[in-house]
UniProtKB/TrEMBL annotation:
Gene Ontology terms for molecular function: ligase activity
Name of the featured protein: Amidoligase family protein
Alphabetized UniProt keyword annotations: Ligase
Species, as recorded: Coprococcus comes
């Protein structure tokens, strides 16, 4: 490369999920984490997710660099993340469906449902004993 900066055109930092190089030159973000597809629902879901994450980044007052551990139920964890982003309600139902389609686990329960039943029975037993 020369003095024109062409040696940094293909800088290694451009090849992450989010490329911020164009922010200063064009005022845009480049998301590089979506696989190519022509399915309209999947394309809409990916665009909506990128917009929701970007909106949260703009509107959030502070951030904390902390890795969220992936639980034993990734579907539930990601669903709650989508809800925190504001993807709530009927209008985002199809978006959530496409984004959660390939994740393992129960969407509604964090732990195995039998765990909750055991807790309920234990609570009832404890209530009877305490009387």
């Amino acid at each position: 490369g020369g003095r024109d900066g062409s040696h940094t055109h293909y800088d290694h930092t451009r090849y992450y999920a989010l490329n911020l190089h164009a922010v200063f030159s064009k005022g845009t973000l480049e998301w590089r984490c979506f696989e190519s597809t022509l399915h309209a629902g999947k394309v809409r879901a990916n665009i909506t997710l990128a917009l929701a994450i970007s909106a949260q980044a703009i509107n959030q007052r502070s951030t904390q660099m902390k890795k969220t551990p992936i639980s034993e139920n990734p579907a539930f964890t990601f669903r709650t993340f989508l809800l925190r982003l504001g993807l709530i309600g009927e209008e985002y139902k199809n978006v959530r469906k496409h984004l959660l389609a390939n994740l393992e686990g129960d969407l509604a329960w964090r732990y195995d449902k039998s765990t909750y039943e055991c807790l309920k029975k234990k609570q009832r037993t404890d209530d009877v004993r305490s009387r």
